[in-house]
What we know:
This protein is mainly beta. It has a single domain, classed as 3-Layer(aba) Sandwich (Protein Transport Mog1p, Chain A). The chain is built from 2 helices and 10 strands, in the order E-E-E-E-E-H-E-E-E-E-H-E. Strands 3-4-5-9-8-7-6 form a 7-stranded antiparallel sheet, covered by helices on one side. A 3-stranded antiparallel sheet has the order 1-2-10. Strand 6 and strand 7 form a beta hairpin. The mean pLDDT is 91.
Amino acid sequence: MNEYKSKSNIFSIKVPASYLIEEGGNTISITDDKNGVGAINLSAYVIPATYNFDVGMELSDFVSSNENANNAENLLAQVSADNYEEKEFVLEGQYYWKYWVLYKNNKAVFGTYNCNFSDRLVEKDIVKEMVDSINILT
């Protein structure tokens, strides 16, 4: 795994050497061009110190950008921890989406992973390993 630091200097992430990383603006896309079935997309922001950042509320707002995802019957799993929230959904019975938000030192990273529902386990472990490696820089 190679460590990749965002051009914004907000976070770093460990990514397998064979994966393709594309960065434009404040968004990074990570894919396995040869054997992958999905894509990770990350966006990072500096949050004003005066803003009351609530990780759970921000995740709900982020998920609501996908108009069908925040429907309770589509929810597969939800994880909450200090400064971290995650939700997994199935849409239309065929699309898998995972959303997460990390927050530390007035910096936030918003992420998604999506693929066909039938492929959701193919990259599960490597996606988890990459997400777990995200380090918000000080």
